[in-house]
């Protein structure tokens, strides 16, 4: 699946290169290219379905669903209605934002995160403080449980600072020692980005 995504991404990046911008104007050619890349990728890598959307400037110039949103019922992917959750891909944006703050000299990766948090304080459960480097390597030592990360209605969503203020995940091990995938660590990192910037 990863190989198919890379192939599709590489192909679409070729289309997005400025020297090829005029080529995108031919809708039939664009559709044929994308159809070929995606359909082969789905078939070769046994992927149920995908959506491709291509924009130029502020305009959507191509969107299409491929394969099935439900393999059992053979319901087709609808580019307007089928949900593909982006999930942990958003963590890359958090890490990028942190590194931009680091490059600007606004944060230090080895400093206690409490130095940057304005709305929440992480307790000093262990002698060593949690650092941004710990958050980025998933070694912050926080317990892992769901605390309001999902909601069925937009009105039910609460700011992460408020969630943490009401129900802060416990520190269950010293930081920097054991790697354990941590949604909360990334959430705290995002809160640092918010508070610092």
Short synopsis of the structure:
The protein is α+β, with helices and mostly antiparallel strands. The chain has 6 helices and 3 strands.
How would you describe this protein?
It contains 6 helices and 3 strands. It has helices at 2-16, 27-44, 89-103, 132-136, 160-166, 183-196, and strands at residues 49-56, 59-70, 75-76. Strands 1-2-3 form a 3-stranded antiparallel β-sheet, with helices on one face. Strand 1 (49-56) and strand 2 (59-70) form a beta hairpin. Helix 1 runs antiparallel to helix 2 (27-44) and helix 3 (89-103) crosses helix 6 (183-196). Mean pLDDT is 86; it is low at 1-22.
Averaging pLDDT over every residue, what do you get?
86
Count of distinct strands = 3
Number of helices: 6
Structural class by sheet pairing and helices: alpha+beta
What is the alpha-carbon Rg in Å? 21 Å
Shape: elongated
Strand order of the largest sheet: 1-2-3
Unreliable sequence segments: 1-22
Largest sheet: number of strands, sense, barrel closure: 3 strands, antiparallel
- Roughly how many Å apart are the termini? 36 Å
Q: H/E element string?
A: HHEEEHHHH
Helix percentage: 25-40%
| Proportion of residues in extended strands | 5-15%
Structure characteristics:
197 residues, alpha+beta, three-stranded antiparallel sheet, 3 strands, 38% helix, elongated
Topology:
Blueprint: H1 2-16, H2 27-44, E1 49-56, E2 59-70, E3 75-76, H3 89-103, H4 132-136, H5 160-166, H6 183-196
Antiparallel strand pairs: 1-2, 2-3
Helix pairs in contact: 1-2, 3-6
């Amino acid at each position: 699946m990863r190989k198919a995504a890379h192939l599709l991404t590489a192909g679409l990046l070729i289309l997005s290169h400025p020297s090829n911008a005029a080529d995108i104007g031919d809708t039939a050619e664009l559709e044929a290219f994308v159809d070929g890349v995606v359909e082969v990728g789905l078939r070769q890598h046994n992927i149920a379905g995908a959506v491709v959307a291509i924009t130029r400037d502020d305009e959507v110039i191509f969107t299409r669903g491929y394969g099935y949103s439900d393999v059992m019922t053979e319901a087709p992917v609808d580019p307007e209605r089928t949900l593909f959750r982006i999930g942990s891909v958003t963590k890359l944006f958090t890490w990028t934002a942190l590194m931009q703050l680091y490059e600007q000299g606004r944060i230090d990766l080895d400093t206690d995160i409490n130095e940057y948090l304005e709305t929440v304080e992480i307790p000093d459960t262990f002698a060593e403080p949690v650092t941004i480097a710990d958050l980025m390597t998933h070694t912050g030592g926080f317990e892992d449980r769901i605390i309001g990360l999902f909601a069925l209605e937009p009105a039910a969503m609460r700011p992460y600072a408020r969630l943490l203020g009401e129900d802060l995940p416990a520190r269950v091990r010293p930081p920097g020692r054991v790697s354990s995938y941590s949604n909360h660590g990334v959430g705290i990192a995002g809160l640092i980005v918010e508070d610092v910037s």
